[in-house]
Amino acid sequence: MGGNNGLGRTSAPVPQYACMAGVTMLQVDDIHLSFGGVNALSGVSVHAEKGKITSVIGPNGAGKTSLFNVISGFYTPQSGKVVLDGQEISRLKPHSRAYRGMSRTFQNIALFHGMTVLDNIKLGAHTNLKSGIISAGLRLPSARREEVELDKTIQRDIVGLLELDHVKHKHVEDLAYGLQKRVELARALVMRPKILLLDEPVAGMNREEKREMSRFILGVKKDWNSTVLLIEHDMAMVMGISDHVVVLSFGKPIASGTPDEVRSDPAVIKAYLGTADEPVQNAA
Fold first, then answer.
1. For a tag site, which of 17, 64, 251, 271 has the least CB within 10 Å?
2. Which CATH homologous superfamily contains domain 24-114+193-282?
3. Model pLDDT for residues 174-194, shown as the tens digit of each residue
4. Which pTM does this prediction carry?
């Protein structure tokens, strides 16, 4: 059922993967990853609960991106396992994980220039399309009907939610940086993912853009009951929107809990500031 999404508009229907909270959607257990004898991750475990926002934080070099690359299938760990919605996916390739409901954005924007906002968003829906390459290439009636339905779904559920109506026909290279990051989020959402991995979603943004992105992520969680796992350096943003926070330092987990528990943990304060005299929320 739809409702008011807190963004000043009617909410989109709940996606097909929306689930009841209180159950683990993503389970990452005891991951060990090394490169040439250098330990990137040592015994890292993260559990992301359905319908919640879980954040992974840590100083530069803590292993956050390595962890995301393990979860999304770009790196194969020496040991440990990754389980998505009850199914182990540890040995699956990235595209196979996408078909099982995993979607990811990247720190560096990877949109296709020369294409409009709508066309870029459509590219994210490939895992949900039933028409094959031949049907699409020949513009068979079934493929055309599916494309028309996809356009309707994107404009109803995605474009409106992320407030992209006014730029949907513009080329992405003509947009401001914050809007480009929003388009990348839209492209990840159109897959109807079971879990959404956000890799530093507010990196490089100004204060207003960060506030807007935080609002949109919370809107996605509220309206779609989405499960979100994110890594981010902006502590104010993390502490403001997260339900659970995991802290890494030099590839090892040092703390896990609610934002309030983590921000006052002496090990976290030491990792960020080298002292226990200042609160971690002041760290950048």
1. 17
2. P-loop containing nucleotide triphosphate hydrolases (3.40.50.300)
3. 999 999 999 999 999 988 899
4. 0.82
